[in-house]
Amino acid sequence: MSQVIDQTKSLVERKSITPEDAGCQALMIARLEAVGFTVERMRFGEVDNFWARRGDQGPLLCFAGHTDVVPTGPAEAWRSAPFVPTERDGCLWGRGTADMKASLAAMVVAVEEFLTTCPAPAGSIAFLVTSDEEGPAQDGTKAVIEALEARGEKIDWCLVGEPSSRERLGDMLRIGRRGSLSGDLVVSGVQGHVAYPESAVNPLHKLAPVLAELVSLEWDPGNEAFPPTSFQLTNLHSGTGFRNVIPGSAELKFNIRYSTEQTMEGLQARIHELMDRHGLDYRIAWRDAGRPFLTRKCRFLEAVREVVREVAGVDPELSTGGGTSDGRFIAPTGAAVVELGPVNASIHKIDEHVRIADLEPLKDLYLGILRRLL
Ligand SMILES: [Zn+2]
């Protein structure tokens, strides 16, 4: 029986829906302590996290991931119970198999194997594991990174086990993510009778030219790693429901997905400038859901690419697409962040699964990276 499969099953049968960890981290911690890691449990709010480190010299290679999973949806729609890991048709089925308990299992087994042949590596190994990646993500990786930063502990290379592969194991690495900035905008006017517009201020009329400009703006053309920055209006509410009342205010929500050509501050300044130029009476509540990052060519990225070519026999595409991940909290510390994990076709869906034949190679990928760098 493969240790990776065994360990994946043990994690999957623990029903760790965000922010519950359901004992997954304890399983990992026991194994890591047994091979010489010093483990700090870091619970923030209702979120379990841990930081485990072995060694005190640099460079520090960190494996990062999450034990939490998204809800199953209707359990009866699954071909086998979502928290009963089941082997069938060459796959292992269950919630969290692909996102990302197989990766966690593969990381732990890879480190154990590595240390049997290399008990004194030329650098340190760490694990940063959270139980809130799929949820609000405020008390998870973000909070652990803040604690590490506060004491000056720096990650050099970070391998995130998110399921990055598209069709076959290793065919895609994520090396960056777009930034995400949301704004809740309230535009104030003066309510009145439609027959007496001179004694009212219609916020919708004030807003119309601003929106026309916002939605046609070209923020940037993108760059070699990112598509162009995109602004999307997501909510627009105004009016009393009456046909003869000019509304007193209008509320909008918008989101911007942005490339490394922009900064959050630059985007905010540009939107404020536009509102001010059109003389709007407004306020905006901003929500920073992650800054953009890009891991450029470096020793870490090259090592990962070489190992993928060797072990998986595929030249990985380097991508910055997809949603956000906890890499957004780790990269701003200066760490080089690469995401490498199994095929993501079934993640968050009914009947999530991984190919059993990918599990040993996934461990061998992580093992190869350890051997090449430490
Ligand atoms: Zn994930």
Description:
The protein has about 375 residues and is of the alpha+beta class. The chain is built from nine helices and 19 strands. The mean pLDDT is about 95. The chain binds zinc ion. Zinc ion binds near residues 66, 99 and 100.
Mean pLDDT: 96
- List the total number of helices: 9
Shape: elongated
Q: Looking across the biggest beta sheet, what order are the strands in?
A: 1-2-6-3-7-18
The helicity comes to: 25-40%
Largest sheet: 6 strands, mixed
The poorly predicted ranges are none
Distance between the ends: 28 Å
What string gives the helices and strands in order? HHEEEEEHEHEEEEEHEEEHEEHEHEEH
Structural class: alpha+beta
Give the amount of beta strand, in percent. Answer: 15-25%
Bound molecules: zinc ion
How many strand units? 19
Radius of gyration: 24 Å
Provide tags for this entry.
single chain; 374 residues; alpha+beta; 6-stranded mixed sheet; 4-stranded antiparallel sheet; 9 helices; binds zinc ion
Summarize the structure.
Helices cover 30% and strands 24% of the residues. By secondary structure, it is of the alpha+beta class.
Topology readout:
Elements: H1 3-12, H2 24-34, E1 38-41, E2 49-54, E3 60-66, E4 86-88, E5 91-93, H3 97-117, E6 124-130, H4 141-150, E7 157-160, E8 172-174, E9 176-177, E10 179-188, E11 192-193, H5 203-216, E12 230-238, E13 245-246, E14 249-258, H6 264-277, E15 282-288, E16 293-294, H7 299-312, E17 317-319, H8 327-330, E18 336-339, E19 353-355, H9 359-373
Parallel strand pairs: 3-6, 3-7, 7-18, 8-17
Antiparallel strand pairs: 1-2, 2-6, 4-5, 5-19, 9-16, 10-14, 10-15, 11-13, 12-14
Residues 66, 99-100, 133, 162 line the site of zinc ion.
